[in-house]
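Ligand: manganese (II) ion. Inputs:
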Amino acid sequence: MSPARKKAAAKSSKKSSSKPSYRRIATEEAFSTPEQMDAMREILAKTTEYHPDLFLWKIQTDPNGPVNKALLDLEGERLRIMDRDGVSMHLLSLTSTGVQMMDPDRAADVAVAANDRLAAVIQRHPDRFTGLATVPPQDPPRAIKELERAIKKLKLNGAIINSHTNGEYLSDKKYWPILEAVADLDIPLYIHPRAPIPAMAAAYRPFHLEHAIWGYQAETGLHALNLIVSGVFDQIPKLKIVLGHMGEAIPYWLYRLDWMHNIASIKFDRPKLKQRPSDYFKHNFCITTSGMNWDPVLFFCISALSADNVMWAIDYPYQESHEATEWMNKAPISEADKHKIFHGNAERVFHIKKKT
Ligand code: MN
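Predicted complex:
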């Protein structure tokens, strides 16, 4: 953080948020592990051509860089920043791209180690941390095995997958057993962004739009839409998906998606759905505010999806904790909605124990 930003953060926290009157549960908060860093360093060392995700991993794996330190830190600076801003809890998840760029054996090992580390830190700070399980989607049977261990034994609160795995989406039927396991365990699956595959990213590259400025949300929105039109929610009606960044632009397009999906004059080769795309989005999805600290889109999403489907998030350490907190503290919405968005919905969706 720059000195000017630090000063602003200190000033704003003094003003209103040092004594939280809300329980504030931030739901898309990243961490890393030495095992993930080592595996990504090895992949980087073997890769010569440009890869949009590895471009960022080069920055993140730099031990002298500020992101590397912030991702590996759980109980030092992170807790101090949470205290400063009045953030009650981080729902932690292994940072994108998780284990999805590793070979299947390494991916399974790094996932197990990450989930164990996560469970240990939650046990030390049960009031401050909860977490999402990392699984290796490239090996569905092992993903399911680790998912069951992470939920039943380690008591984690859901699962996370960072968009595509080797260019494939979860709408591909070979991944549906993972989605069935998610629904059977009664947990949500957070689909977090990563960059589009290199072939798709080529179109974004002239002005470097392949990352969080546009590529991430285009990639993850497409992933979510593929899931909706694949018919998976008719097959697994209990499946609950969480999207960050105010729904990765899907809410804005719901009317047009319904209209175009229903167009009678052209026969597209797509599964027939029981409901409209917007119905699945309203019933099977929740969104978080990660990295979208902006009133107009908050009002819109509450009106389109209801305040029961919106959860607060910071996207620490990639975005500023104090900015996300101050924004939601001041958001001109009802107190009841603010309680839902700050903590009530997260408690319900991620099975987080209510504070008594
Ligand atoms: Mn994020």
